Amino acid sequence: MSEIFGWCGTAFDTGKPQDILSNKEYHICHSAQIETANLSILESTGSSIYLYNNEKIICALEGHFYWDTLASSKKHINQAQVLAEEYLKHNEKCLNDIKGAFSLVIMDVHNKKVILAVDRMGIRKLCYHINGDSILAASRSDQIIKHPSVNATIDKQSIFQYLYFHMIPSPATIYQGIYKVPAGKYVVFKDGKQVLKKYWKPSFTKQNKPKNALAEELVNKLTHAVKKFDSSNTGTFLSGGLDSSTVTGLLSGIRPQPHAYSIGFDEKGYDELEFARVAAHHFDVKLHEYVVTPNDIVNSIHTIVESLDEPFGNSSLLPTYYCAKLAKENGRSALLAGDGGDELFAGNARYAKQKLFELYYSVPSTLRQHLIEPTLHTPKLVEKLLVTRKIKRYIEQAKVRLPDRLTTYNFFHITSANHILQADFLNEIDQDNPLKTIRSAYADTDSTDYLDRMLHLDWKHTLADNDLRKVNQMCDLIGIDVHYPMLDDELVEFSTTIPSSVKMPYFKLRGFYKEALKNILPKEIINKQKHGFGLPFGLWMKKHKPLSELTLDSITNLKKRDILNPIYLDNLIKQHQDEHAAYYGEFMWVLMTLEIWLSAKQE
């Protein structure tokens, strides 16, 4: 993946650009005034990247993108020049016409203004730092901290966000004063001020079309999205789920016998290779398999975690790494991933679960407040009947409004932060910040429909800050490009026009999508239960000594950092051994990877 590094200054005495740091890994150009600002481009591993400058403007643009309303004659020239021309014509509104995956930097020399932006879904990443009157922008936060003028300090609030979310949501990074540009937004720097603006948000304007017409349109748009990334050297991730099977199947209809790559686990309840094989056989693709073992974690975890520019606790990093590695070794230069389908077409179990709770508010408020709820506060009645106990638990959860209700099973809501974290650390953070982050993304749409809002929240967090970061970072590490047909802008916009009652009829996840694809996907894939790409880490840790030792050593070292309560960590280890190994093991993975990352970056 291409990377951008740019610097510009506005209030320095000297005026000539000079190289201040350069080696094979990265190159930064430093200039003293915006009139002589510079951008450097790091090595590309597949995506298109362009750089353009004249006396008025300097632009860098990278990714896999296209213009919505651009004359075909301009599609074959330097796209950074096109960006410059479009910006000079339309100012910031030009961002609305760029589609696909991109990050960009615009330095408006004449107006002394700088703009940083990323694509609508946050496929690309761009970080920035304000240093006095100068701005640093890079694809990774660890590129910024290499700049001699930056004094990087770990942000304790971001560590708390990481422990809460298992990643660090935008716009924060792990470093104080370094930020990520959020998906679909851009940052403007002018007159010593910075403003975060939104150039795109989904309209959620519903179409009143017959379902068969919507289904036909869906298949056409999916096919078109896959065609955009077709090449003889492109393969697919194939987990055996709906989305990876769809992408693989559509690619096989465009080009006979493409290559697909699947990961399995020698652990009952986690391995889904049988479904990947069903899809591969159905579509006549060349399937390549790799079975991940506990030894693979021990052998690769340091390489994987130390490659990250900030802590990231999604354990699916590891199978993603080995899947990309398998494809690279097999000669692929790019992979198509199926990420995004669940978040566009209502495929996550929490959507149906929250619909059940939201039904409570269809009961008239007078009836709820004066009959149902008072009755359930009668102790003898509640204790006597199982059904009333269940109803009481249902109402207690329903009364927690969305999106707060989504955090019910978070470790920090099951156990108080006062027990998990050390007191001094706790005093320096805002415990309410995670909920503020979720509420902001949930409300940041004009729709009042709970499902639309949940989908939008997942676009910003589950996708932009989690799933896409996972796949992108592992493909970057391996040196293979990755594309996301399910997140094609036209397909995303189309998904917002489908009524929620059609996307998820009653409580049927992906109801519309499955009906539309029933003549393309095999029945076994249509009817299978959603599984995911989870790693059986907690189970393996109980029976694989080297993995257990690695984890426990990391947690022992983490005790010395004045972040987590040692008593809580000891109890967590005991709970993992005596209670639910998979559940508690997931948080132990989060803690282990945090320690590995901190140890590597703070040496």
* Order of adjacent strands in the largest pleated sheet: 5-6-7-8-12-13
- Overall average residue pLDDT: 88
Helix content: 40-55%
Q: Please tell me what the overall shape is.
A: globular
SSE blueprint:
Elements: E1 4-8, E2 18-22, E3 27-30, E4 38-41, E5 48-53, E6 57-67, H1 79-90, E7 98-108, E8 113-118, E9 127-131, E10 134-138, H2 141-144, H3 156-165, E11 178-180, E12 185-190, E13 193-198, H4 211-227, E14 234-237, H5 242-254, E15 259-265, H6 273-283, E16 286-292, H7 294-306, H8 317-329, E17 334-336, H9 341-345, H10 349-358, H11 365-375, H12 379-384, H13 386-398, H14 411-414, H15 417-420, H16 423-426, H17 433-443, H18 450-478, E18 481-483, H19 489-495, H20 500-503, H21 511-516, H22 523-527, H23 537-543, H24 545-558, H25 566-578, H26 581-601
Parallel strand pairs: 14-15, 14-17, 15-16, 17-18
Antiparallel strand pairs: 1-4, 1-10, 2-3, 5-6, 6-7, 7-8, 8-12, 9-10, 9-11, 12-13
Commentary on this structure:
- The chain is of the alpha+beta class and 603 residues long.
- It has 4 domains: 4-198, Glutamine Phosphoribosylpyrophosphate, subunit 1, domain 1 (4-Layer Sandwich), CATH 3.60.20; 211-344 and 456-527, 3-Layer(aba) Sandwich (Rossmann fold), CATH 3.40.50; 349-453, no CATH class; 537-601, no CATH class.
- It is built from 26 helices and 18 strands.
- The protein has a 6-stranded antiparallel sheet with strand order 5-6-7-8-12-13. A 5-stranded antiparallel sheet has the order 4-1-10-9-11. Strands 16-15-14-17-18 form a 5-stranded parallel sheet, with helices on both faces.
- β12 (185-190) and β13 (193-198) form a beta hairpin.
- α5 packs parallel to α6 (273-283), α8 packs across α18 (450-478) and α24 crosses α26 (581-601).
- The protein is globular.
